[in-house]
């Protein structure tokens, strides 16, 4: 029996596709810059079906690439080996919110927005927020240990995961859950799968931590003429009680959002800092005290009510609408020491000018943690190869990591050694070998084939 027939017996015929148009659409990354090839698409609807699919593919010698919301920015869901695409999109069961323990159980295919709505309806909130909230799935977010707009307060995705269901490469199922708040019994297997990018198993379900909703919130955007001054302000705010978000925005970015999205910057400045405080009591005085004496380019824009706050947040989130105005952007997702951010901004811009004179660099990100997103607009494929390698070398030289919150995927696997020692990589490969001896699961991700 062919593999397609075997998989159809497991998940149902309508959930297996070999249509070339369907596969082509599923084999391109979120940016549209990287493409691969696949042999079929399979959409299991339960953890047990995922496990059976994995077992069948392993026995048939087929490579498997796992796909969630396909919002990866490092080609993490792009197949390379005529792979079987295993989509988690049907794993959408969402449990009731446990208000007492502040938890919720969600299938891997549940979108971030759906979790946020469920939490809000129960008077709680989920600690991770992304601009791609309507399409990003919680399974994929856990697989990459995603960060986002609230990391400065709540941490990355791994800090929200209390338990997991995982289909392992041999077709068995691991269920790791605990009702106690502190469980140090044995290996912390939950943490092992968070950030593994689907190389050790397929996350099928998650138990997620929820948080109390602060009663008061205030948002502000401040302009700075000097990036060093903004970074210094970021150091002040990241340690402030009640900090909820701290976002750096390049003034070049707001020029684009004004022109192409009708969202101009509300303040002057070559660099903007979006600040949000949230607390049980009104944080307005706290914000005013922290801003006092900072070398601002002008008066800050402050949002006290929800509508005004939403308008200020639109300045940050409109970036997603304009990054593709000149075609697929070249993206660099990096983590840097705060002391290196100004040097990186200047040297990165010089690198881009030397490799792609017509390109436009746009820098933004979560300055509290030094997690930045450099997007190079109007960058040709011809210029990309040399520029990418040079940029990775710059990041490593400045003491940064080549990946901050989007993962390694396939795009950054050749640069893993810039952020991890040979011993680190050997240990990770040994873990991969233990779970997946034939290397068939997400074979292009993180290491590539040996």
List keywords for this structure.
globular, 15 helices, 450 residues, 33% helix, Uridine Diphospho-n-acetylenolpyruvylglucosamine Reductase, domain 2, Uridine Diphospho-n-acetylenolpyruvylglucosamine Reductase, domain 3, five-stranded antiparallel sheet
Short description:
The chain is an alpha+beta fold and 450 residues long. It has helices at residues 3-11, 20-26, 47-60, 112-121, 138-144, 151-154, 189-193, 227-238, 251-261, 284-291, 306-317, 319-322, 341-355, 381-397, 422-435; strands at residues 16-17, 38-42, 64-67, 83-87, 103-107, 124-126, 161-167, 173-176, 202-212, 216-224, 243-250, 271-279, 301-303, 330-335, 360-366, 371-377.
Report on this model:
- Strand 15 (360-366) and strand 16 form a beta hairpin.
- This protein is an alpha+beta fold and 450 residues long.
- The model has no long low-confidence stretch (mean pLDDT 92).
- It is 33% helix and 21% strand.
- The protein starts with a helix and ends in a 15-residue tail after the last helix.
- 49% of the residues are buried.
- The chain has a seven-stranded antiparallel sheet, sandwiched between helices. Strands 5, 6, 7, 8 and 9 form a five-stranded antiparallel sheet that branches.
- It folds into four domains: 3-87, Uridine Diphospho-n-acetylenolpyruvylglucosamine Reductase, domain 2; 103-212, Uridine Diphospho-n-acetylenolpyruvylglucosamine Reductase, domain 3 (2-Layer Sandwich); 216-321, 2-Layer Sandwich (Alpha-Beta Plaits), CATH 3.30.70; 323-418, Alpha-Beta Plaits (2-Layer Sandwich), CATH 3.30.70.2740.
- The protein has helices spanning 3-11, 20-26, 47-60, 112-121, 138-144, 151-154, 189-193, 227-238, 251-261, 284-291, 306-317, 319-322, 341-355, 381-397, 422-435; strands spanning 16-17, 38-42, 64-67, 83-87, 103-107, 124-126, 161-167, 173-176, 202-212, 216-224, 243-250, 271-279, 301-303, 330-335, 360-366, 371-377.
- It holds the Pfam family FAD-oxidase_C.
- Keywords: FAD, Flavoprotein, Oxidoreductase.
- Belongs to the FAD-binding oxidoreductase/transferase type 4 family.
- This is FAD linked oxidase, C-terminal domain protein.
- One of its GO terms (molecular function) is oxidoreductase activity.
């Amino acid at each position: 029996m062919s593999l397609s027939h075997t998989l159809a017996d497991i998940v149902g015929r309508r959930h297996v596709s070999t249509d070339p148009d369907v596969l082509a659409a599923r084999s391109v990354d979120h940016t549209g810059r990287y493409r691969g090839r696949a042999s079929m698409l399979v959409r299991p609807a339960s953890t047990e079906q995922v496990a059976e699919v994995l077992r069948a593919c392993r026995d048939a010698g087929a490579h498997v690439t796992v796909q969630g919301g396909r919002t990866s920015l490092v080609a993490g869901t792009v197949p390379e080996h005529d792979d079987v695409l295993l989509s988690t999109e049907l794993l959408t069961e969402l449990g009731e919110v446990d208000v007492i323990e502040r938890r919720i159980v969600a299938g891997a295919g549940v979108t971030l927005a759906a979790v946020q709505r469920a939490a809000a309806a129960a008077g709680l909130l989920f600690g991770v927020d992304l601009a791609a909230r309507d399409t990003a799935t919680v399974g994929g977010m856990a697989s990459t240990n995603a960060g986002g707009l609230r990391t400065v307060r709540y941490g990355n995705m791994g800090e929200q995961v209390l338990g997991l269901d995982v289909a392992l490469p041999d077709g068995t199922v691991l269920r790791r859950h605990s009702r106690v708040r502190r469980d140090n019994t044995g290996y912390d297997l939950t943490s092992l799968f968070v950030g593994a990018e689907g190389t050790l198993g397929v996350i099928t379900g998650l138990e997620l931590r929820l948080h109390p909703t602060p009663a008061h919130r205030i948002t502000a955007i401040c302009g700075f003429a000097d990036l060093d001054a903004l970074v210094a302000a970021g150091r002040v705010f990241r340690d402030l009680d009640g900090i909820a978000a701290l976002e750096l925005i390049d003034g070049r970015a707001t020029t684009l959002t004004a022109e192409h999205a009708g969202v101009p910057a509300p303040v002057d400045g070559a660099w903007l800092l979006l600040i949000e405080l949230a607390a049980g009591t009104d944080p307005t005085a706290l914000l005013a005290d922290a801003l006092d004496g900072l070398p601002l380019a002008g008066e800050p824009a402050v949002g006290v009510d929800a509508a005004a706050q939403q308008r200020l947040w639109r300045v940050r989130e409109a970036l997603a609408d304009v990054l593709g105005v000149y075609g697929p952007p070249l993206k660099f997702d990096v983590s840097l020491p705060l002391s290196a951010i100004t040097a990186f901004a200047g040297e990165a811009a010089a690198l881009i000018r030397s490799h792609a004179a017509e390109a436009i660099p746009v820098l933004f990100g979560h300055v509290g943690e030094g997690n930045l997103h450099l997007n190079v607009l109007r960058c040709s494929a011809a210029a990309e190869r040399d520029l990418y390698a040079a940029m990775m070398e710059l990041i490593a030289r400045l003491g940064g990591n080549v990946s901050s919150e989007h993962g390694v995927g396939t795009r950054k696997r050749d640069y893993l050694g810039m952020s991890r020692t040979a011993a680190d990589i050997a240990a990770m490969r040994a873990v991969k070998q233990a779970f997946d001896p034939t290397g068939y699961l997400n074979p292009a991700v993180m290491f590539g084939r040996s």
